[in-house]
Amino acid sequence: MPTLTATLAEARSAHGTMSVTSDTVSDELVVRGSGELDAALRPTFDGVLDTVTRSTAPTRLDFHDVTFCGAEGVHMLRRLHLAARGRRVRFGAAAAVRRSLALCGNPLPRFAAI
């Protein structure tokens, strides 16, 4: 079972959250999203992005608990991918996220699944 430390960064809106923690067992940076990934989350997203950009740890993007992913959510996922470039990235997402990515021509490369 993963052991997560305190939240390193968090983005929050009325209907969605995105948080960054560190998994001390797998030594991964964990970005977890839930609820709605849309423009309402954008004003607080930079803290999450900055934390991912500064890290050199392998990264797990876990978006299994997302119920809606709008165009801005796809853009945020793309920016997270670019911030994690050059390291191992594992990605998992709910159907809502996969559907939005498919509608956008799937702008993310293939990652190892979680």
The shape, in one word, is: globular
How confident is the prediction overall: mean pLDDT? 85
Order of helices and strands: EEEHEHEHE
The secondary structure category is: alpha/beta
- Uncertain runs are none
- Could you give the count of β-strands? 6
Stated plainly, the CATH topology is called Transcription Regulator spoIIAA
The number of distinct structural domains comes to: 1
Number of helices, counting only DSSP H or I runs of 4 residues or more: 3
Query: What portion of the residues fall into strands of 2 or more residues?
Result: 35-45%
Strand arrangement across the biggest beta sheet: 1-2-3-4-5-6
Largest sheet: 6 strands, mixed
End-to-end C-alpha gap = 14 Å
Q: Mind telling me the C-alpha Rg? A: 13 Å
Approximate helicity band: 25-40%
CATH architecture: 2-Layer Sandwich
CATH homology superfamily name = STAS domain
CATH class: Alpha Beta
Report what the structure shows:
The protein is α/β, with parallel strands linked by helices and 114 residues long. It has one domain: Transcription Regulator spoIIAA, CATH 3.30.750. Helix content is 28%, strand content 35%. It has three helices and six strands; from the N terminus they run E-E-E-H-E-H-E-H-E. A six-stranded mixed beta sheet has the order 1-2-3-4-5-6. Strand 2 and strand 3 form a beta hairpin. Helix 1 packs parallel to helix 2. The longest helix is centred in the last third of the chain and has 13 residues. The chain is globular and about 35 Å long. The protein starts with 8 loop residues before the first strand and ends with a strand. The mean pLDDT is 85.
